[in-house]
Amino acid sequence: MGYVKHARGGLIALAATVVALLVPGAAGAQQLAPAGGLPEPASPDLIDRAQEAGRIDNETANLYRVYALKGDSRLPAAYESNTPFDGTLELRQARRELRSMEPGPERTAVVAALRSPPSPLTTNCDFLSNTPLPDEDDTSAHFYIQYNEVLLEDSLTIDDYRASLEQAWLTEVDSFDWADPPTTDAADNEIGGKYHVRIDALGPVLYGFVSSLGTYAGPVGNNPNTAWDDEDADASCMGLNQDYSTFPSPPQASLDSTTAHEFNHSLQFGYGGLNGDNVPDDNFIEGGATWMEDEAQDGADDNYNYLYPQFDDSMGEHDTGDIYAYWLTWRGLTEPFGTDAAGAGEQIMQDFWELTSKNQASNLEAMNAALVNKGTTLPDAYHDYAIAAKFMAPCDPPGPTGYQLPHCFEEADGYTDAAGETEPHGEVTGVNQFFKGQVEDNYTLNWVVLPANAGSYDVSLSNDSSGGTLRGTVACDTGTTIRQSPLPSTVGAGGAQTTPAFDSDGCQQVAAVLTNETQTAPNPDSSEARDYTVSTATPAETARPDTTITSGPSGTSRSSTATFAFASSEAGSSFECRYDGDAFAPCSSPNTRTGLADGQHQFEVRATDSAGNTDLSPASRTFTVDPRVIPAVLDTTAPVLQSVRLSNRRFRAARAGRAISSAPLGTRVRYRLSEAATVTVRYERRVSGRRVGGRCRAVTRRNRGRKRCFRFVLVRGSARRGGTAGANSFRLTGRMNGRALRAGAYRLRRSARDGAGNTSKPRRSGSFRIVRR
To answer: Where does the pLDDT of residue 634 fall: very low under 50, low under 70, confident under 90, or very high at 90 and above?
Structure first.
């Protein structure tokens, strides 16, 4: 298996070769995501969505996926994107699907694109670096370097490359004591057992790469430099770019970050960590190598270009965030134990890879074991990191006052200078108000801003789902320290906890910091989002609980039996229930009523807290019993979504909150449904392009002089809203995935799904413009 670093030091997994990720045009690779924001969907994402929607078949999708990986001009304009991407999953999928592809032109094209051409006349490091290189440097202590001195970029010399590579080895192997990368017999016999590096013309967007295929690379089985049998270790080679003048950081910083990053991949190969059934997820592989840049080349700071990670996407199944940006999470977990020193925070990452190499643990399980070796746990360390990442406070020298680890970052000022402040996921605007959100299992965080300088108030967290383990801390930034008021305990399914009488006076910022520490597997396949409510209230003696129904029938049901589950925002509450306007009577969750008559019914429930305060607005659910209703499984008619109108076509995106809100923000969307259904809303942003061959393509260096045009690209994320038959409405806030949309022109893409699973065709309309905040 080989890996390629793309436009940041990224890896692309191949089963037998390495494919370069060349985003069309040099400018595209340098267009970083806006501070605190997400990039537009990358080409593989667009292809996957088209395949899922049935617009292209599997064979065509696989061919387009390979075209996207190689930057092939034959990729249709509809699937082109300037957004850099990592191709690990896409290329693995392409190779898996290749086995089942029918013979034909698509399969022939995929095979040709994935083949690594032989290079009999020169040494090679996979097919990305196989041209003749006339010069060689064998004076380096650990590296055999091939290059073309005439073609080196003016500001860097071979001495600079040699010194940067040796610094990576000095730190990661000699100082930190990671195991030396293994060598092949050919390397031992022909280049003195040194590590093979080629400095080559890799284009304006490829920093470098590491591959397990090459003249001096390949499988070795057991790495003799470890004290255990690795079983599937690889010797590898490295390709470096001969010109770093086009990259975001200065050439020397780009080189230094690349050698530190890529050499860490060489060690990962050497541990056998990138083969077999125990391969870590991409955010561990790529985020870990990006984290190492700070340890081996602390002054390069090229990773500042990749802030921040997608905080509300789980560690265990990180599928929507930038995997390079996940380095900040590893920084937050390791920095409290020291930086740039052997046996300090680096030991956590080293232990993680050793456990992986030994097949003793994987992913979340391995990271927890590595943290236990330092006297903490993954749940504790991750929650501390969540507090630090919210406030981005710079660490003060150790002492009784000032910002202190683990709730600060040594280089926080650099992070905020590069990417701004981290954005919250919601806000409670006053006392006796609330915010409802979602947080995924397997280590995900949310931040909910609370009132500052508003006196004392209670803060409650309720888990409104049937799973999840939520930990909460009310944190106050006083300007000199982070004052914490943790909830009494974690909050399980249907539970609630309260921090009483939190004093908000003297706080510059207040936030409820939430983490979901439910771990569903060592390496989970998915992470379910759990609903929660954060609420504030006047002190407990006068505060009233908030009641929520967490499950139960809705719409039309054939059954005459109804079972409802419910919860209170205050722990220790009692409940009263009633059906169809009868008197309230004591009850407990779940509550079941049998023998319901045909027709419409209403269930209501209210909570009373331990101080005797009763919810004045009971939670309510209306449903209909009709034994004649056709089972939903026989319903094959898709709902019809029509008459969509927007109240505002020019508005500012909300500064906080969810994509759909009841607050008077953004624009009201009015529409009609032919039946009760859930409406899914997505945003498409208008971007500029160039007319090529009758199509509007992304702007590249090659088509820069062509006629201008525009096209729409899909924004990552979606929002959902239940609707009834007939007229409906809701408000869009101009936010998605916890972040405000950037300024620009947009249109809506909508579809509706009924209870039987029938989905309408996506419709596009509702043009509008987001103006700057």
So the answer is: low
Any bridge partners for residue 685, and if so which?
713, 746
> Residue 4 in 3-state DSSP?
strand
Closest CA to 749 of 707, 717, 709: 717
Sign of the alpha-carbon torsion through 247, 250, 252, 254 = negative
Cβ pair 275, 1 in contact under 8 A: yes
| Residue 709 CB burial class (10 angstroms; 0-12, 13-18, ≥19) | middle
Q: Pick the more confident residue, 715 or 506.
A: 506
CB 511 within 8 A of CB 531: no
Contact (CB, 8 A) for 747 and 712: yes
pLDDT of 166 strictly over 80 = yes
Q: Which two structure tokens, joined as six digits, stand for 331?
A: 């920084």
Strands 695-697 and 641-646: unpaired
DSSP codes, 150-195: GGS-TT--HHHHHHHHHHHHIIIIIIT-PPPPP--HHHHHHSTTPE
Distance linking the first and last C-alpha atoms of the chain = 47
Residue 659 and residue 436 in contact, taking contact as beta carbons nearer than 8 Å: no
Report which DSSP code applies to 394. B
pTM over 0.70: no
For 426-460, write each residue's pLDDT tens digit.
999 999 999 999 999 999 999 999 999 999 999 99
Supply angle C-alpha 570, 571, 573, rounded to 5.
80
Are 310 and 737 a contacting pair, CB within 8 Å? yes
**CA 754 distance to own-chain centroid:** 29
Q: Report pLDDT for 71.
A: 62
Q: Tell me how far apart the alpha carbons of residues 387 and 491 are, in angstroms, rounded to a whole number.
A: 18
CA distance 230 to 179: 11
Q: What is the pLDDT of residues 267-307, one digit of tens each?
A: 999 999 888 778 899 899 989 999 999 999 999 999 998 88
Q: What is the rounded CA–CA span in Å between residue 195 and residue 464?
A: 55
Calpha distance 598→587 (Å, rounded) = 24
| Cα gap 385→333, rounded to integer Å | 6
Six-digit token pair at 277? 């059934």
The pLDDT tens digits of the residues spanning 138-160 come to: 889 999 999 999 999 889 999 99
Q: How many CB atoms lie within 10 A of CB 193?
A: 16
Q: Is the peptide bond before 24 cis (omega within 30 degrees of 0)?
A: no
Burial class (CB within 10 angstroms; exposed 0-12, middle 13-18, buried 19+) of 479: exposed
User: What is the rounded average pLDDT for all residues in the chain?
Assistant: 84
Task: Assign 492 to helix, strand or coil.
Answer: coil
DSSP letters, 70-131, are HT-TTS-GGG---S----HHHHHHHHHHHHHPPSSHHHHHHHHHH-----TTS--BTTTB-S
pLDDT tens digits, residue range 22-35?
222 222 222 223 33
Is-contact 459 435, C-beta < 8 A?
Answer: no
Q: Under the phi-then-psi rule, with left for phi > 0, alpha for psi from -120 to 50, and beta for the rest, what region is 612?
A: left
**Which tens digit of pLDDT belongs to each residue from 542-580?**
568 888 888 888 888 888 889 998 988 888 899 999 999
Distance between CA atoms of 158 and 144, rounded to whole angstroms? Answer: 12
Radius of gyration of the chain (CA): 28
Tell me how far CA of residue 570 lies from CA of 473, 567, 613, in angstroms. Answer: 16, 9, 10
Q: Is 104 exposed, middle or buried (0-12, 13-18, 19+ CB in 10 A)?
A: exposed
Beta bridge partners, 604, equal 578, 620
Nearest partner of 569 among 535, 593, 520, 528, judged by Cα: 535
pLDDT for residue 119:
52
